[in-house]
Amino acid sequence: MGSFVLLLASILASWTLLSREPRVHALEDGVAKLPVLGYNTWNAYGCGISEAAVLSDAHMLVSLGLRDVGYTHVNIDDCYAEKNRSASGDIVASAARFPSGMNNLTDQIHALNMCYSDSGWYTCAHYPVTPHSFLTLHDRDAKLFQDWGFDYLKFDNCAIPYDDIIRQGIVGKYERIATAIAQLAQDTGKPPLILSLCEWGNEQPWLWAKRFGQSWRTTGDINTSWGSITSIINQNSFITWASDFFGHNDMDMVCADPSTSSGNSGITHEEAKTHFTAWALMKSPLLIGTNLSAISQDNLSILKNQEILAINQDPVVGTSVSPFRWGINPNWVSNSTHPAQYWSGESQNGTVFMLINTLSKPADMFFSLTESPWIRAGRQYAVRDLWTHTDNGTAIRNFTAKAVPAHGVVALLLTDAGDEPPSSGPPCAVLQWCMDKNGTLAPGA
Ligand SMILES: *[C@@H]1O[C@H](CO)[C@@H](O)[C@H](O)[C@H]1NC(C)=O
Ligand SMILES: *[C@@H]1O[C@H](CO)[C@@H](O)[C@H](O)[C@H]1NC(C)=O
Ligand SMILES: *[C@@H]1O[C@H](CO)[C@@H](O)[C@H](O)[C@H]1NC(C)=O
Ligand SMILES: *[C@@H]1O[C@H](CO)[C@@H](O)[C@H](O)[C@H]1NC(C)=O
Ligand SMILES: *[C@@H]1O[C@H](CO)[C@@H](O)[C@H](O)[C@H]1NC(C)=O
Ligand SMILES: *[C@@H]1O[C@H](CO)[C@@H](O)[C@H](O)[C@H]1NC(C)=O
Ligand SMILES: *[C@@H]1O[C@H](CO)[C@@H](O)[C@H](O)[C@H]1NC(C)=O
Ligand SMILES: *[C@@H]1O[C@H](CO)[C@@H](O)[C@H](O)[C@H]1NC(C)=O
Ligand SMILES: *[C@@H]1O[C@H](CO)[C@@H](O)[C@H](O)[C@H]1NC(C)=O
Ligand SMILES: *[C@@H]1O[C@H](CO)[C@@H](O)[C@H](O)[C@H]1NC(C)=O
Question: Are 89 and 192 in a shared domain?
Fold first, then answer.
């Protein structure tokens, strides 16, 4: 289902001032400079949510140590409301699922935030959002969500009214809720609701969504299979440039529960690591989509990899890793089972590399350092392995990750370690057009 209500616990990370010029025009309204980390009820519970389940998962975030590594938002998805609005026009919290009321819940989760709404008549599970005056209810709803103690709104795209009512394109639809949120913040002096756009059905959200919200979905819903993960990586490999501070490509859940949707095959340990690494280094929001009472130690330790999380939450560099070589397929080929394999990006502490073995057997993965635009020629680099948490020596000119497991990932941080030794090989690591001052091409060039 393309829709989610997000309940965000805002033990909100403080946001720091930009330390560099933003490279993309994003909505810098003070919230969600960095990708949101948290939990979402949809994959584990669907419409079967309850305040007890939400509270239990919120407490599990704390007891499992997830809150302490950054997962502070608790997001409720669809099906939180009664089918009808109140006589005065407000959304009414489901009495069966949230008998103590939303404020009770948000108080208990202590600045847990929640919200879900939709830009159409109904939510995706057909819970009415706007039955009477579709065009005027956004202000009312934004106010109610704020009054309920929510600080994050996932705004979906189901149940779209007929054209003769809406007379707007997707931009206008989302602009209305964004305007309501901005106005509310101005009127109340409270921080704006974080706006998570779930504008599926529009293939180019990166062209417009960052004017209105802090993240936008880039694909359909994830399911728990390797094919779904590679397909999402492939699609996002072409739009990595759209993510930066205050605006993020949202690749959908991490650790999505396989039990709620039939046919999902589940994923292996290596695949789960690849999933988490790609989402984190591509600066996606990281929303855990599984029943935390049933999570395995293995998946828990993957979600808690603090060296990977630190890059997702990098306070100095907001950009994503991007492919520098596709690998098995020629560069720029879109292939949903065999996406780009060789990626790099900048970070606060050095250049990050991500290698994905898309083959179903182990493989050595080799790259020349200067294939990455962020590496300086003629320098050597200290190599840190972000999964084994070890210093792996010094790379000169190139690096080979040996026997990367099937569907496995390697994540490295390379930091400058000074000039390379004098006898490091040919005069240029990349010989093409390598030339002596006297006008002679280097041998082999
Ligand atoms: C919801 O509203 C509709 C239309 O006003 C009405 O027919 C229906 O009985 C209401 N349902 C409930 C559960 O109140
Ligand atoms: C919240 O609801 C629970 C259960 O109904 C109740 O025990 C508690 O007193 C309520 N808390 C507040 C702050 O209303
Ligand atoms: C999971 O996603 C993949 C890739 O989008 C798709 O091919 C597959 O049919 C989906 N499986 C299920 C059970 O929805
Ligand atoms: C980890 O979670 C994935 C879903 O993301 C699931 O397919 C897999 O079975 C889980 N692994 C373990 C060891 O529980
Ligand atoms: C969550 O997991 C716990 C422990 O395995 C189980 O008792 C509970 O029924 C699960 N909840 C859902 C909604 O699957
Ligand atoms: C950079 O290194 C410092 C010191 O080890 C660490 O605290 C910080 O999280 C790192 N930043 C990133 C983005 O990895
Ligand atoms: C995707 O790439 C793999 C590896 O090159 C290839 O075998 C497969 O045929 C490609 N799939 C499509 C749909 O082109
Ligand atoms: C990798 O770099 C080393 C120098 O560290 C060099 O001797 C070797 O030839 C390079 N390998 C390849 C395949 O370029
Ligand atoms: C880094 O070193 C560790 C410990 O020796 C090893 O397990 C790991 O495979 C190495 N990483 C790479 C990418 O070679
Ligand atoms: C240019 O310099 C290279 C060594 O750097 C030398 O081998 C070559 O003979 C020189 N060529 C000329 C035309 O001087």
Answer: yes
Provide the domain limits for residue 349: 322-419
Atom 3 in ligand 7: residue holding the nearest Cα = 338
Domain count, the chain: 2
Domain co-membership, 161 together with 222? yes
- CATH code where residue 111 lies: 3.20.20.70
The answer to whether residue 78 is catalytic is no
Residue of minimum CA distance from atom 6 in ligand 8: 425
58: in domain = yes
Report the alpha-carbon distance of residue 228 to residue 256 in Å, rounded: 11
CA nearest neighbour of 93 among 33, 51, 153, 36: 51
Ligand 9, atom 11, residue with closest C-alpha: 385
Give the pLDDT confidence of 306-362 residue by residue, as tens digits. 999 999 999 999 999 999 999 999 999 999 999 999 999 999 999 999 999 999 999
How far apart CA 435 and CA 445 sit, in angstroms, is 8
Nearest-CA neighbor of 359 among 412, 322, 410, 408? 408
Whether residue 401 sits in one domain with residue 254: no
Q: Which of 4, 3, 197, 7 is nearest to 102 (CA)?
A: 7
Task: Examine the domain organization and report whether 282 and 200 are in the same domain.
Answer: yes
Enter the pTM of the model: 0.91
Is 156 annotated as catalytic? yes
Which ligand gives the minimal distance to the CA of 281?
6
